[in-house]
Amino acid sequence: MGRLTAIVIGAAGGGGFPQWNCRCPVCRLAWAADRRVKPRTQASLAVSADGARWVLLNASSDLRAQVQATPALQPRAEPRGSPIAAVILTGAEVDQVAGLLTLRERQGFTVFATAETLAVLGANPMFRVLATDVVTRSAVARDKPFPLPGGLNAELFAVPGKVALYLEGDDPALAAESGANVGVEIACGGRRLAYVPSAAGVTAALRQRLARADVVLFDGTLFTDDEMILTGTGGKTGRRMGHMPLTGEGGTLAALAGLPGRRILTHINNTNPILIEGSAERRKVEALGFEIAEDGMEIVL
Fold first, then answer.
1. What are the tens digits of pLDDT across the range 16-60?
2. Of 195, 215, 265, 266, which sits with the fewest C-beta atoms within 10 Å of its C-beta?
3. How wide is the angle at C-alpha 228 spanned by C-alphas 58 and 183, nearest 5°?
4. Are 215 and 301 in contact (CB under 8 A)?
5. Residue 57 · residue 299 · CB < 8 Å
6. SS3 readout for the chain
7. What pTM was estimated for this model as a whole?
8. From CA 210, how far away is CA 195, in angstroms rounded?
9. ∠ CA(117), CA(97), CA(295), 5° rounding?
């Protein structure tokens, strides 16, 4: 059994950083090639125990670029082949599933997800390009461990959240615990990593789950709940989008305070000032023991 290795192949929220159509104060720095900010692609994590077979946690629309930037994920066998052996989905948002379409060239792998997420894929004929004779779709129940290629074990767990934006009705539940939004725990040799790219809140059960992890990668979308409104980039609060803010009452910094393992913020929106190295917001987060994920970050347990 090898060691658990994780590579952050994307650390940004939906749209990436800088976002293609955005000139908010943070994106302006990126467009100007300011050294205080680093571009990031949309959030995803690659994990492996043997270095030969890799599992993706979510598949963003930036996946092709992420493979190009990550030697461990590049093809090794001729004429075709890929070390990507499986994909675990935490939900059906566009930035979680669109990258599956990049993997459509009759390459065998398994998609693990809740029955709810697989039903969304099944209802969309575009995903039929993932030929069923080579791509397996495996429904996974929450709180039930299952094996992954290469010697890893995984478990999906409840995280307050909502359905994908394009599935919302007139009055969506914003912090429901359902199969529409889950976290992933990866285990190997007694070590654990938890991945939660989208969270509307932290329940007592979720905090207990995270407390047993050696590393937690957690939703860091917005610094303040009204960040997008104040920057003129949107009309919704973070909580309306299904993301708890880092600060304020019930924010992530307070909810995850005192956890024993490493705490790394990921899925960071392009408007979030923690993307700026040396900013007051970044210093505040780091002073509380949180790390800021960036593309290419490697974690070995």
1. 999 999 999 999 999 999 999 999 999 999 999 999 999 999 999
2. 215
3. 25
4. yes
5. no
6. CCCCEEEEEECECCCCECCCCCCCHHHHHHHCCCCCCCCECECEEEEECCCCCEEEECCCCCHHHHHHHCHHHCCCCCCCCCCEEEEECCECCHHHHHHHHHHCCCCCEEEEECHHHHHHHHHCHHHHHCCCCCEEEEECCCCCCEECCCCCEEEEEECCECCCHHHCCCCCCCCECCCCEEEEEEEECCEEEEEECCCCCCCHHHHHHHHCCCEEEEECCCCCCCHHHHCCCCCCCCHHHCCCCCCCCCCHHHHCCCCCCEEEEECECCCCHHHCCCCHHHHHHHHCCEEECCCCCEEEC
7. 0.97
8. 9
9. 130
The encoded tokens of residue 32 equal 């100007």
Written as six digits, the tokens of 262 are 């490493």
Q: For residue 1, is pLDDT > 70?
A: no
Domain ranges for the chain, please list them: 5-300
The answer to whether domain 5-300 has CATH 3.60.15.10 is: yes
Q: How far apart are the C-alpha atoms of 182 and 199, rounded to whole Å? A: 9
Q: Would you call the peptide bond into 18 cis, given omega within 30 degrees of 0 as the criterion?
A: yes
Token code pair at residue 171: 């009055």
Residue owning tokens 């490493």: 262
Structure tokens at 232: 């003129």
159-186 per-residue burial string, b: 16 or more CB within 10 A, e: under 16: bbbbbbeeeeeeeebbbbbbbbbbbbbb
Token pair of 23 as six digits? 């000139």
Distances (CA, A) of 205 to 201, 258, 275: 11, 15, 30
Q: What's the pLDDT score for residue 2?
A: 78
Edge to edge, the sheet with strand 298-300 lists: 135-139, 109-113, 84-88, 54-57, 44-48, 5-10, 298-300
